[in-house]
Amino acid sequence: MPVFSIVDCNSFFVSCERLLNPSLKGKPVIVLSNNDGMVVARSNEAKALGIQWDAYHLIKDKIRYYDIQVYSSNYPLYSEISGRVMAILKQFAPRMEVYSCDEAFLDLTGIENLDTYGQLIRETVLQHCGIPVSVGIAKTKTLAKLANRIAKKSPKVKNGVLNLVDSHYLDDALKRVEAKDVWGVGRRWAERLRGHSILTAYDLAHADPKWLLKTFNVVLTRTALELRGQFCLSLQLDPPLSKSIMHSMSFGKLVEDYASLRQVISTYAAESSAKMRREQLACGSVHVFLQTNRFIQEPQYFPGITLPLPYPTDHAAEIIQIALSALDAIFQDGYRYNKGGVMLGQLIPASERQTSLLDSYNRDKVVGLMQALDGINRQFGPGTLRYGSQGFRKAAWQMRQNHLSSQNNQGLMTEHQQVKRICELGQSTALIRAL
Ligand SMILES: [Mg+2]
User: Fold this and answer.
1) Would you tell me which CATH number, out of the four given (3.30.70.270, 3.50.50.60, 3.30.70.360, 3.40.50.2000), belongs to the domain 1-167+401-435?
2) Distance in Å, CA 14 to ligand 1 centroid
3) Cα–Cα distance measured from residue 22 to residue 159, given in angstroms and rounded to the nearest whole number
4) Per-residue pLDDT tens digits for 365-421
5) Distance from residue 307's CA to the centre of ligand 1 (Å)
6) Which are the contacts of 15, defined by CB distance < 8 A and separation ≥ 6?
7) What homologous superfamily is domain 245-390 in, according to CATH?
8) Which of 103, 102, 100, 119 is nearest to 111 (CA)?
9) Distance of CA 204 from the midpoint of ligand 1 (Å)
10) How does pLDDT run across 189-213, given as a tens digit for each residue?
11) How far is the CA of 7 from the centre of ligand 1 (A)?
């Protein structure tokens, strides 16, 4: 009999901020999206105050009134901590599917005492990374998700671990989760199900599979079978190769001058090429686009162009060069741009790159150069080592991050220093108790 677990970090971005600043424990905290636009993470205390996925500028009064702590998202930091959490989870189950930056499915088939094992996972992640997690364990992935949801929300569940394998609580658990909150159902299907008096996970589990297949589709039928404990969805152990890699972002301010756009496109090309090298891929084409702001009354322009590369490459300089040629081809004076992006396409594994006698680059040298570049930027923070065309000063087009943790609490601490501090703190039991 297969057994699955899903381990999910509790309010992940908020937990990362609390790791840097333990005094945030017990206080309402929110994290904002790029350019400080929307709320993307909330602590339980902020949820209790009624904070939803709101636009930041609409809830400023509420934030001031309740003294809610606000942070700009610090993705390099979250990604570093996510990597540490995943490395620990991997030790508990070699067969693991990383489902998102803060969630992973583990195959626990054959483990004897599942409750104790779940507790051990939770305690180890907390001890080594300082991040609290919830653990759901069940016979299928869908049931494990449901168990995790209850583990997170119900005060009755001890220490955030709920095991529904052969549990007399299973029917109760199914009855207390609404159909819309079942993994893979979603609001639209839930509304249609409601029309057939299927309101809870229990109702869905007991619906006739033939009828579900006829009225809905095979995906929902599988979900219903999984809720009955029939295993349909296996772990996705090898994530499919990315089809494209994109770096795109709204600017902190509208940009109209060519010199700034060169910095933007160079930076986005460098960032996307670094991401591509992390996945050990090379690209055969580069797409560049620009956008004006369609919500303001002024001339609009949404150009984009894809340029092929002579040979597939993962070399940042080559990618920046071709991205700048693309910018030259689409840039028009007289518009104020608010967003741009670079997308790398025709991706292949870097190891399968064909070599050519006509190639002007010494590829072996380039591999070493890129390793050095990525190594330094990993250690000292993204953009520490960069190409001249990316610019050297903080520019107006860069993302608004007025509430970054480094500015709030850590003086002038760089992201690298923050991560290093977390590594030190992660070992400290005092911190773990503080959480
Ligand atoms: Mg989470």
Assistant:
1) 3.30.70.270
2) 10
3) 20
4) 788 899 999 999 888 877 888 998 998 777 777 877 778 776 444 434 455 555 555
5) 39
6) 9, 130, 131, 132, 435
7) DNA polymerase, Y-family, little finger domain (3.30.1490.100)
8) 119
9) 25
10) 999 999 999 999 999 999 999 999 9
11) 9
